[in-house]
Amino acid sequence: MIGDFMQASEALSWQRNIWGEIARQVDNNRMPHAILLEGSAGLGKLYFARLLAKYLLCRNRIGLLPCGGCKGCDLMRVGNHPDLSIVEPEKVGKSIGIGDVRKLSDRLNKTAQQGGWKIALINPADSLTLQASNALLKTLEEPTGDTTILLTSQFVWRLPNTVRSRCHRILFTTPSSNISIKWIEQFTKNPSLAREVLEIADGRPFLAKYFLDTKMYRQRVEFEKWIGRVSRFEGSPLDAARFCQRNDHVQLVEWFLTYLAKRVKQDLANKCVPPVFIFYDKLFQARNWFLSKANPNPQLIWEEIFFDFRTLCQKMDSQLDWSTNATKLS
Ligand SMILES: [Zn+2]
Questions:
Q1: Ligand 1 mean position to 84 CA, how many Å?
Q2: What are the helix (H) ranges across 9-67?
Q3: Do 131 and 229 share a domain, yes or no?
Q4: Which one in 65, 79, 155, 172 has a CA-CA gap of 20 to 30 Å to 310?
């Protein structure tokens, strides 16, 4: 999703403060042995982790940044630094098992090949199985010399508390729209498109760039049109489910959750309305099905979601006019 941006060479505009803090900690020999980088997808957590790894492995740091020209920086650029171990699931949605963590621990117990830091990047840490998390705990409890473990997570509650509590935690939040727009405008000459993609990415710059690059913002507009149609009884749940077949299911569920969260905030002033929260749970459950290896039947799941959503809209109409709000969206 991030492509060339993985060649992290300087702090992103919305991360400058936290970057300054951590880079100073490195310079003052106060680098924590484990850092948990937490926050929603699309805020640049992985970019930050890469930049930090590069900074730690650079031999000639200049002004809180890696020099870009030393052997450490060169090895990072070609993606082949022997002292950086990256642990990721084989595929998105798959888990990181105990075997991967054991291999990692073995590597971290050896001496650094380049004589500096040994770094592990676990991305995302919430895909560790419980057994893998427990195995990692040993390494977190007994850190060796110049070793640090960087963990990224957008679903931090999935990590056992024992792991979380042993990490220095950095929380990434959505930047101000001025900062994000300025950043995304580098990639499009169309300022109104920059605003539009940023809005549908809920203000998350990297996600907005991804939508821009893949033209996925068009799919989101289409998807919200289908939600509108179903809520107004103008479109059938079956047709809406058919539309979903051609798209990324997990992404669509996330859009639905965001859509619902916005409605709850705007129209219900964050009041607790049980039918809405039951539907919320349904979407979370669907998200887990799509993420699981169980190979669910997407058409059936989407039909159920849209039928339930239509029932919800029926119930809600007595309290507020959701269909009017939905009209505005289409
Ligand atoms: Zn360097």
A1: 14
A2: 16-27, 45-57
A3: no
A4: 155
Domain-embedded: residue 199: no
Among residues 199, 263, 265, the alpha carbon closest in space to that of 231 is found at 263
What are 185-212's pLDDT values in tens digits?
999 989 999 998 998 888 999 999 998 9
Pick the last residue of a domain from 171, 206, 241: 171
- Residue 271, pLDDT > 80, answer no
- For 96, which DSSP code? B
What is the rounded distance in angstroms from the CA atom of residue 327 to the CA atom of residue 148?
51
Instruction: Report the alpha-carbon distance of residue 37 to residue 35 in Å, rounded.
Output: 6
Q: How far is the CA of 208 from the centre of ligand 1 (A)?
A: 30
Coil, strand or helix at 207: helix
Token pair listed for 318: 């007595």
Mean pLDDT of the chain: 88
Distance in Å from the first CA to the final CA of the chain: 28
Q: How far apart are CA 53 and CA 272, in angstroms?
A: 44
**Where does 187-270 have alpha helices with state H?**
191-200, 205-214, 216-231, 237-245, 249-267
Q: How many A from CA of 68 to the centre of ligand 1? A: 5
Q: Are residues 228 and 315 in the same domain?
A: yes
Which domain range does residue 295 map to?
A: 215-319
CA 31 to ligand 1 center in whole angstroms? 18
User: How far, in Å, from the CA of 2 to the mean position of ligand 1?
Assistant: 22
In whole angstroms, give the CA distance from residue 190 to residue 195: 9
How close is the Cα of 117 to the center of ligand 1, in Å?
Answer: 13
Q: Report residues near ion ligand 1: CB below 5 Å.
A: 58, 60, 66-67, 70, 73
Q: How far apart are CA 248 and CA 186, in angstroms?
A: 27
pLDDT score of 63 = 92
What is the distance in A from the centroid of ligand 1 to the CA of 159? Answer: 33
Element (H or E) spanning 86, and its range? strand 84-87
Instruction: Scan for tokens 């979380």, then name that residue.
Output: 164
